[in-house]
Specification:
Radius of gyration: 19 Å
Shape: globular
Number of helices: 8
CATH class: Alpha Beta
Strand order of the largest sheet: 4-3-2-1-5-8
């Protein structure tokens, strides 16, 4: 069965869109904007597989005297220059989302709430029940403090964790998880599947947010 010229037209249009996105100029950022990327970390593939999204890491844009930074939970919660943050992502791809209704006071609250958490360790177990913080949890907590909640909470089991990447990550880290003390590998996995978390893509898909920039192909 011949596909005809339409498949080639579609491919050319997709290529043109990708090129246009790559070279398009970013708009002026606003403090509090949320920035997403595909991380190069070891767990990135598992997160992408479990969420069916390229967004495996995120942070909050803020301005300092020396330029734009990203407040992020990567290692300890810290501030990273925007340039370095973008370069660290896979293929330097990133997308920025904005809450158009965020007031100046709410923006200040978001940044203050995020900065208060600076120095907290990274949460390898994606749990709300410890002091450690993971990337989307940071944004979820900060926006929640400002009365502008973003994203939605899911259980680990509601994600696509049956694949090899995500399942391997769960089983590998389970032995160090405080909530799995004394449990078998399968028992620990069952506990983790019931755990609540908020993912980067759950925040990006929040209807209160608007995408203002992306150099992803699609």
């Amino acid at each position: 069965m011949r596909r005809g010229p339409w498949i080639w037209i579609a491919l050319i249009l997709m290529l043109l869109l990708a090129v246009w996105r790559w070279f398009s100029h970013a708009p002026k950022w606003r403090e509090g904007d949320l920035i997403f990327q595909t991380s190069r970390s070891g767990q990135s593939t598992a997160i992408a597989a479990a969420t069916l999204s390229a967004y495996t890491h995120m942070g909050i844009l803020a301005r300092r005297g020396d330029g734009w930074v990203v407040i992020e939970a990567a290692g300890p919660v810290r501030e990273t220059s925007l340039k370095a943050w973008i370069a660290r992502g896979r293929f330097a791809r990133y997308a920025v989302f904005r809450h158009p209704g965020l007031t100046a006071q709410q923006t200040r609250t978001v940044l203050t709430a995020a900065r208060v958490l600076k120095g907290r360790p990274y949460d390898l177990f994606f749990s709300f029940r410890n002091r450690a913080i993971y990337c989307s949890e940071l944004a979820w907590l900060a926006y929640g403090k400002a009365g502008a909640p973003v994203g939605h909470v899911q259980t680990v089991g509601s994600l696509y964790v049956g694949n090899g990447f995500a399942d391997r990550l769960i089983r590998t880290r389970g032995g160090r998880d405080a909530e799995c003390s004394g449990l078998s590998v399968d028992g620990c996995r069952n506990v983790i599947l019931k755990r609540e978390l908020v993912t980067p893509v759950a925040i990006a898909r929040d209807r209160s947010l608007r995408q203002v920039y992306s150099n992803y192909p699609l």
